[in-house]
Every structure is written in structure tokens, then in C-alpha cells.
Amino acid sequence: MNIQGQLLLHEGVYEMANHSEDIITYFQKLDRSFFMDELKEFAYMDEAIPIGYEQTISQPSLVLEMTLALDLQPEAKVLEIGTGSGFQTALLAAFSKTVYTIERIAELHERAKERLDEAGFTNIHFKLDDGSTGWDEHAPYDRIMVTAAAAQVPIELVEQLAIGGRMIIPVGTPLHQELLLLEKEEDGDIETTVLDEVRFVPLKGKYE
């Protein structure tokens, strides 16, 4: 991959209109193999691929679906639970002002940080920790993306979501999970929409 031409965070990207076409075009330029240390030959497949430590790099079409549903905005502050390979993080960071991302596995945390630093991103803050209860220090967040399945929606994440904010989270058991969109209304109530049936690795921590 030509990192300079395809993955580098281009000057002025925050001023881009938030059209689905912009996100799709940028997504198509991301070389998935850049985010993989092994099994790079399978990067073209629209499937989840193991990245070690019982984790996966998510199915590309699902990453795109989740990103579009999050409705990113140029001035948004985003919380990501589960940095993983950094693939989803790169897409979030290209279309929002700031991303706070948490990963509990040290090796994945360090490798993702190296990749995203190499790619030129300067608007990502990394934390090595249990992300199941969020990152309260920088709340509220305009958008929250959870990339592992919780047994139930963590109340801490709901509390850290800004009024008017959106959260994408898979919820359920290992055998049955639903991808949920949560929207916090002006009165603080949460409107929940089921987007899809999915299969994610479990969210470790308080909400296993």
C-alpha cells in the first residue's frame, strides 16, 4: 500500500462534507492488509480474520455499515471500545475531530498505535485498559463505537454519550447478537434500533 497516497490523513479532511459517498470512497482506499501482521493474503475477503489473542479484524462490509450508521461529523468527539487492529479506528479518525480508543490487550494496543502513527494520524488518543466502562475523563462523546459484544448495554457508556449522540454496539450471547444503534434524545431518553444480526468476539470486563 502507498501509505502516503491512500492512508495518510490528508490536510483538510475535517472540512469534507459528511456524505456517505465520501466515507465509502475513503474506505475503499484503505488497504486492509496494512492492519494485519499475518494472514495478509486473506485481507481481500469480506470475512472476519484472526489477528491473534482470540481477536479478529472485522468483516469489511460490516465495518463500513457500522461507520455509516454512526453518522460521523467533522467536529465529533468519538469513543471507540476495542482498538484491535486499528482498521476501524482509522476510518473513525478520518471523519471526526478526535478519537479516544481503548484496547485491553497490550500487544494489540501497541501495534495499532504504531500503525496509526505511521499513517500520519494525530487526532487519536490511545488507552490500554478495560474499555467496558468507557473513558469517563473525556466524556461526553458525540459518538461511541463498540467493536465487541456485550451481554447488555453498559450503563456507563450510555451516561458518557452526549445528548443527540449515537452509539453502535453489538449485544447478546455468543450464539445470538444484535447490532444496536442507540440515540440519546434531548430529554436523555434512549431510542434503540436493531440494525442487523452479527457475530463479534465478547466484550471482556464488567459486561461479559
Explain how this protein is built.
By secondary structure, the protein is of the alpha/beta class. 25% of the residues lie in helices and 28% in strands. The chain has 6 helices and 9 strands. It has helices at 3-6, 20-29, 60-70, 87-94, 106-118, 155-160, and strands at 49-52, 55-57, 77-81, 98-103, 124-128, 141-146, 161-172, 177-184, 190-198. The strands form 2 sheets. It has a 7-stranded mixed β-sheet. A two-stranded antiparallel ribbon has the order 1-2. The protein is globular and about 50 Å long. It starts with a helix and ends in a 10-residue tail after the last strand. Residues 1-18 have low confidence and may be disordered.
Topology:
Elements: H1 3-6, H2 20-29, E1 49-52, E2 55-57, H3 60-70, E3 77-81, H4 87-94, E4 98-103, H5 106-118, E5 124-128, E6 141-146, H6 155-160, E7 161-172, E8 177-184, E9 190-198
Parallel strand pairs: 3-4, 3-6, 4-5, 6-7
Antiparallel strand pairs: 1-2, 7-8, 8-9
Short description:
With 208 residues, the protein is of the alpha/beta class. Helices cover 25% and strands 28% of the residues. The N and C termini lie far apart (37 Å).
Attribute tags:
disordered N terminus, 9 strands, 208 residues, two-stranded antiparallel sheet, alpha/beta
Following the backbone from N to C, one meets helices and strands in this order, namely HHEEHEHEHEEHEEE
State the end-to-end CA separation.
37 Å
SS-based class? alpha/beta
- Specify the oligomeric state: single chain
Q: Compute the gyration radius: what is it?
A: 16 Å
Low-confidence parts lasting 5 or more residues at pLDDT below 50? Answer: 1-18
Averaged pLDDT: 89
Summed up, the helix count is: 6
